[in-house]
Amino acid sequence: MTPPSWFMALSAVLFAIGVAGVLIRRNVIVMLMSIELMLNAVNLTFIAISRALGSVDGQVIVLFVITVAAAEAAAGLAIIISAFRNRETVYADELNVMRW
Amino acid sequence: MAQLNLAAISYSWLPICPLAIVAVSAMIVLLVGVHVRDDESESLGALTLVLLSFAFMFTLGLLGRSGIAFAGAISIDNFATFFELTILLSVALVVLMSIEYAPALGISAAEYYALLLFSTLGMMLMATAGDLIVIFVGFELMSIGVYVLAGFLRRNVKSSEAAIKYFILGAFSTGFLLYGIALIYGATGTIKLAAISAALAGPLATNPLLLSGLGLLLIGFAFKVAAVPFHMWTPDAYEGAPTPVTAFMAVGVKLGAFAAFLRIFMVHLNLASAHWSWVLWVIAALTMTLGNLSALVQTNIKRMLAYSAIAHAGYILVGMAAAGPQAGGAILYYLLGYAFTNLGAFAVVIALERRGTAGDRISDYRGLAARHPALAGVMTLFLLSLTGVPPLAGFLGKFYIFSAALNMGMIWLVIIAVLNSVVSAYYYIRVIVAMYMQEGGAEPSPLDSRPALIAALTVAAIATVLIGLYPNPYMAGALHAFTSAFGAVSPTAALLVR
C-alpha cells in the first residue's frame, strides 16, 4: 500500500501549481481553472487522510467540496461573462477601471 | 473502516430554527418575486423585512440556551445567538437601504433579496458551526451570494469589475481555508471543533501538520476580514459594488467571518495561542497602519470607507492577538457598534448617490450641511464614532479592546493602535470639514420620498449613540456571549482559560 504521505506530497505539489497559476496567469478563466485545481488538490488530501485514519469524515467532506466548487464555478463563470459583455476582455490586467 | 451510524446523529431542530427560517424565507422571496415587477419591488423588500423579523424573534427565544445538535455539527450558545442577532439586524438595515435603491436602479429584486438572505444564512451558519465542514459550507454560502451581489449592476463597468476581483481572490482564499481544514483534520483526525481543542491539550500542539493547517486557515480568514497583506480586493470590490451591497460586505461578511474566526482561534485553539498570537500581532499592526495610511489619500468616499474597514479589522485583530475572555467580549461589543456605525455611514452615501455610483466623491459632500443639515448631522455622528470620539459606540469599542490588550502586556501594539486612531481622525474629519466649511458639491436627491432610507439612518444613528451612552448591558451581554462559547470546549481546556 502506498503510504499516505505520498498522496499528501502529490496534493501539496498540485496545490502549489494551482496557487502559482492564480498568481502568474492573467486570463481570468485560467485563474478560475487554477482555483479548481487547488480545491481538487485539497480533495486528494482529504481522501488520503481519510484512508489513513480509516474515518469516513474526509470522504463526506470531499462530496461537499465538489458540490460547493461546482456552485462556485457556475457563479464565477456568470460573473466573468457579465464582465466580458461590458469590457470584451477576460484579462485581469485590462480590468483596471478602478485603481488607486 | 468506521461505519456511519445514522441513529447516532441527534436531530434537534430547535437550535437551527433561525437558520431554517432564513433558508425558507429566501425561497419564499424567490417564489413571490416572480409576480413582482423590478421597478415596483418595494413590497418584496417589505416582505423580506417581515421574514427577517420572524427569524429575529426566534433567535431571541434561543438566548440563554446552549448545547450541540446534529452530532456536534451545530453548536448553539449565546456566542452564536449574539452573532445571529447582530447579523439579522444588520441585514434588516441593508434591506431598508435597498428598498428604494433597488427599483431606482432596475435591480432584479427577487434574486437580489433572495441572495441577501442566502448569504445571511451562510453567515449565521458560520456563527453556529460546531465543526470545520459547517464553517466551510457557511463560508461558501456567504461568499458566493456576495460575489454575485457585488456584480449586480450588470451594465455597470465598475460593478462587474468589482465582482470579478472579489470572486477570484475570494475563491483563491477558499482554497487556503480548505487546505487548512484538511491539514487540521490530518493532524487531529477530527473535524469537530470541540475534539480539536481537546486534542490540543496533548503533545499535538507543536505538530507541524497542525501548525501549517492553522496558518492556512488564518490566511483564509484574513482574506475574508480584509487583513493586510490579504486586503488587495477590498477597495475595488467596495467601490464597484452597489452601495447597499458594499454595506453588506463591510458589515455582514465581516460579522460572519469574525464569528467563525473568533470561535476557532480564540475559543477552540486558545491553548495554542502561543503559536498564533504573535502572527496576529504582526497582521494587526500592518492592517491598521496600511489601512489608515491608504485611506488618507482617497478621493472616493466608498474607497475611503473600504480602507477604513480594513483599519477597523486591524483594531479587532488587536483584540484577537491579546486573546482571553476580556478581549473576546470587547471584540463582540466592538463589532456591534461597528455594524451600526458603518451601516449608517453607507446609508448616507446611498442618500447622496444619483443613478449608481455618481456622487460618491468626497468633494460631493462639500456644503452638505447648508443644503441638508440633518443628513450632514448624522454623517458627522457616524464619522466621529468611526474615529472613536466619546461617547459614541466606536470610542468604547476601541477603549475596551485596547485596555484588554494592555492587560495582556501588549503595550507596543496598543501604542501603534492609538497612533493609528489619531491618523484616522484626519480622513474622517476631512469629510466633516467638507460638509460644514466648504461650498459646492452635489445636490442629494430629495429624501422625503425615501422613508425606508430615513428609517435605516434613524435606527443606525440611535443605535450608535445608545450603545455608546449605555455600554453596560451591551458589554455585559458581549462578555457573557463570548464566555458561553467555552462551554463546548473540553473541561480541562475550559479550566485553563480561567
User: Beta-strand level of the residues of chain B, as a percent range?
Assistant: under 5%
Major sheet description of chain A: none
Largest interface, C-beta within 8 A: A-B, 45 and 46 residues
At CATH level 3, the topology of the domain at 26-91 in chain A is: Helix Hairpins
Keywords:
heterodimer; A: 100 residues; mainly alpha; Helix Hairpins; B: 498 residues; two-stranded antiparallel ribbon; 2 strands; 1% strand; globular; disordered C terminus
Structure description:
- The complex is a heterodimer of chains A (100) and B (498).
- By secondary structure, chain A is mainly α.
- Chain A has a domain at 26-91: Helix Hairpins (Orthogonal Bundle), CATH 1.10.287.3510.
- Helix content of chain A is 78%, strand content 0%.
- Chain A has three helices and no strands.
- Chain A has helices at 4-24, 28-53, 57-87.
- The N and C termini of chain A lie far apart (55 Å).
- The mean pLDDT of chain A is 91.
- Chain B is mainly alpha-helical.
- Chain B has one domain (11-497).
- Helices cover 74% and strands 1% of the residues of chain B.
- Chain B has 20 helices and two strands.
- Chain B has helices spanning 17-33, 42-61, 78-104, 109-128, 132-150, 157-188, 193-200, 208-224, 233-240, 243-268, 273-296, 301-322, 325-352, 368-371, 373-387, 393-407, 411-437, 451-469, 471-484, 491-497; strands at 67-69, 74-76.
- Chain B has a two-stranded antiparallel sheet.
- In chain B, a hairpin with a 4-residue loop joins β1 (67-69) and β2.
- In chain B, α1 packs antiparallel against α4, α4 packs parallel to α10 (243-268) and α12 (301-322) runs antiparallel to α17 (411-437).
